[in-house]
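Budget justification note: compute hours in this period were largely spent on complex prediction jobs such as the one shown. Inputs:
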Amino acid sequence: MTDLSAVKAALRGQSIELPSWAFANSGTRFKVFGQPGVPRTPQEKIADAAQVHRYTGIAPSVALHIPWDTVDDYAELAAYAREQGVRVGTVNANVFQDDDFKLGSVTNPDPGVRAKALDHLFACIGVMDATGSADLKLWFADGTNYPGQDDVRARQDRLAEALEAVRDRLGPDQRMLLEYKLFEPAFYTTDVPDWGTAYAHCLKLGDQAQVVVDTGHHAPGTNIEFIVAFLLREHKLGGFDFNSRFYADDDLMVGAADPFQLFRIMYEVVRGGGYDPAEGIAFMLDQCHNIEAKIPAQIRSVLNVQEATAKALLVDAGALDAAQRSGDVLGANAVLMDAYNTDVRPLLAELREEDGRDPDPMAAFARSGYLEAIAAERVGGRQAGWGA
Ligand code: PSV
Ligand code: MN
Ligand code: MN
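Corresponding output:
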């Protein structure tokens, strides 16, 4: 039997980080559909993110993307976030939107371009120092499009060199989180294409380097929960970029495409001790909302993660262990499926009510009139776009 009060206590301690870019205009390469009231500044993105925390109670931090969220004074931005009831979280380094990075950033064959990329990564550590952020997230668009285009092995050497330089620049309480992605924008080779490559680099870099699993960055059919279990066992899982993947890197709402996969991932997190704050796993969303309203989509995403987590916490560990040890294949599977098939929505509504929150965050936010207010207030100025 699972202790429901322990499940509730664990759920109260949950913390999901929101991406600042989810609140900005975004789109596909075919069209960006603007929405009224979309933030014009990093401050307005943080204010919108604070709404998600207000109604869910479990989204207390906001990840920045530099230079998308460039401001003159980052300490002031962090203070602004605190006033809004949230804090600045991970700093995501963007070394993919400058013409100089056409052939790569830290793996570029041109040493001058590599130095420019490294300077940006150092500047991001400066942002962390100013905001008090602990994590630097590194995703490189680096790779090649054609066989022979560049020396694949030399690119690994350049990558290792840059990562070491970043590691040496980190403060004692800071981490570097290395994200992998199967393909895109490079289509022939990608310099960090999979968890094995990221893991191998992080292993050499030491304790301050860990791997980020972006759930959208795998080939169809990849068993992501196995990767999670493996990395956790090695204490090399630094965090998640959660989103849904129907086809490739869709960046749609987590839990939309495959809620069962999300449950299986969260089960391995719980099983491997990754839910314990001491393990330091950063649970982040990395999503864009191109056709749906952004703040409610973030609320829905947070709730989807919360529901999957509640189900994972409900797994009867004793019964599962007994079934596994006795080789009861169907019994073990049934224990897991019982938890997955539990409707946890009443439990979560009860939890919110006990904490003085509205039991239905989606409805409460819709009633608040916030979307109408920002549509009226935020006229004029240039809307901050995803990538702008
Ligand atoms: C790359 O596809 C990625 O997942 C990285 O995390 C980037 O920083 C992010 O998307 C931008 O949306
Ligand atoms: Mn990502
Ligand atoms: Mn991605």
